[in-house]
TrEMBL record:
InterPro entries: RPABC4/Spt4 (IPR029040), Spt4 (IPR009287), Spt4/RpoE2_Znf (IPR022800), Spt4_sf (IPR038510). Signal peptide: none annotated. It comes from the Eukaryota. One of its GO terms (cellular component) is DSIF complex. It is found in: Nucleus. This is Transcription elongation factor SPT4 homolog. May regulate transcription elongation by RNA polymerase II. May enhance transcriptional pausing at sites proximal to the promoter, which may in turn facilitate the assembly of an elongation competent RNA polymerase II complex.
Length: 130
């Protein structure tokens, strides 16, 4: 995986976790990562960041939680085996770690964080405009 090519995921040995935290509540405090669409509570992102996007440093810079996540998303899917799930592949989350993901976000990751993705050779795909 050290080919230097852009990828839409991080290798498992660079992720630090084999699965994402499951949201502790399913109320208004849920947020979705604008890059990978992982869903957790605000406090979970603040405490441990995004397991798919550690380079966004959400647990170190709490402003990044607000800037890199959104409470505005549609639907949730729980994925236990992303590589074997046709739904995960269809949603383009098949190479992320197991966890809860949103079906869609409508906001884009701010440009400065898109640049951080590019600096880390991680693909960012903005949401489709409908």
């Amino acid at each position: 995986m050290g080919s230097g090519k852009r990828s839409d995921y991080l290798p498992e040995d660079e992720r630090g976790a084999s699965f994402a935290q499951i949201p502790t509540s399913f109320g208004h405090e849920l947020r979705a990562c604008l890059r990978c669409r992982l869903v957790k509570t605000y406090d979970q992102f603040r405490e441990s960041g995004c397991e798919n996007c550690p380079f966004l440093d959400m647990e170190k810079e709490h402003d990044n939680v607000v800037n890199c996540t959104t409470p505005n998303f549609n639907g949730i899917i729980s994925v236990m085996d992303p590589a074997r799930s046709w739904a995960a592949r269809w949603l383009r989350i098949g190479k992320f770690i197991p966890g809860c993901y949103t079906l869609a976000v409508s906001e884009e990751l701010p440009e400065e964080y898109q640049n951080i993705c590019a600096d880390n050779n991680v693909l960012y795909v903005p949401p489709k405009r409908t």
